[in-house]
Write a structure and sequence with these properties.
two-stranded antiparallel ribbon; globular
Length: 306
């Protein structure tokens, strides 16, 4: 059971201390600055999923300049958005964001809704993203739970080295940690996330830099995790093969012949075929009636088949 201590912060999470630390040490990320719109925050949240800040920031800046409002992106083609996505990885996120922009432009007056339930009804918006936008764009008191937050809560409150698999308990447990004051709650959510991203990291937590006055994991002697961590390789995977095929199409001005894709991944023809099929199924690329291949939305280019 979570026990309440001063300032409405439960055991192990001192709100005043964490908020003071965040105020003094938080990274100066562009999507945290005043004047950033909910749409621009939404773009950053989509990009940051499974992608480091250092890779996201330059692309995000380009997108803010190019597509400052949803209708601007909605007026662009799927292929333009995929090309602008570049090397961020998991390009289906780009297609879903483009689809989301169309819905925002046509059904929501070119604005990102503030209500979590409405946000959850938008294309490509899941539980984390909906609450992140409500919290960081609109200052709402809602739990925002990513891997960093789950790790901090697991260690500071429960004394576990790892959070384990996501659980239905994550949202209510994190909500119970939030200060009661709405303005403090939103910043507290950002501070929890910052602590997990910069200090209480997965592999090398720097407890000497942790601002929390107490941590159940440290008190327990920092017990070793029982979770077997699997290293995710990239070299030689289907993901890499898909990326190579997409690179060819992003660099092309229109549909290309199959042989150009074959030459992009020669190490395993079976893997290449599997990657190509998955790109077609995901809607990232399309095939013209003449058998050429193109980015989504470019397969119908007049004269492309000739």
């Amino acid at each position: 059971m979570v026990r309440t201590v001063r300032n409405g912060a439960p055991n192990g999470i001192d709100a005043d201390t964490l908020l003071d630390w965040y105020q003094e040490t938080a990274r100066d990320l562009p999507w945290r600055r005043p004047g950033v719109t909910a749409w621009q925050i939404l773009m950053s949240e989509i990009m940051l999923q499974q992608t480091p800040v250092v890779r996201v920031e330059p692309i995000w800046r380009e997108w803010v300049a190019r597509w400052p409002v949803p209708s601007a992106m909605a007026a662009s083609s799927q292929a333009e958005v995929l090309r602008a996505w570049g090397k961020l990885g998991y390009p289906r996120r780009a297609l879903r964001l483009h689809e989301c922009a169309r819905v925002l432009a046509s059904e929501h007056g070119d604005e990102v809704p503030a209500d979590v339930e409405v946000l959850l009804g938008l294309p490509g918006i899941g539980a984390y993203t909906a609450r992140a936008v409500a919290c960081f764009a609109y200052g709402q008191r809602v739990p925002v739970v990513d891997t960093n937050v789950r790790r901090v809560v697991a260690r500071a409150v429960h004394g576990r080295a790892e959070a384990g698999n996501p659980s239905s308990r994550d949202l209510p447990e994190t909500e119970a940690l939030l200060p009661l004051r709405i303005d403090r709650a939103a910043v507290f959510s950002a501070a929890l996330m910052e602590l997990g991203a910069t200090v209480c990291t997965a592999r090398t937590p720097d407890c000497s830099r942790c601002p929390l006055p107490s941590c159940a994991w440290v008190t327990a002697g920092r017990p070793v995790s029982e979770v077997v961590r699997r290293t995710q390789k990239y070299e030689g995977t289907d993901r890499q093969a898909r990326g190579r095929l997409l690179d060819v199409l992003r660099a092309a001005s229109g549909p290309v012949e199959r042989v150009r894709l074959d030459l992009a991944w020669t190490r395993d023809p079976g893997q290449r075929d599997r990657a190509l099929d998955s790109l077609l199924v995901d809607g990232l690329i399309e095939q013209t009636p003449g058998g050429l291949f193109a980015l989504a939305g470019e397969g119908g280019t007049p004269g492309a088949d000739s």
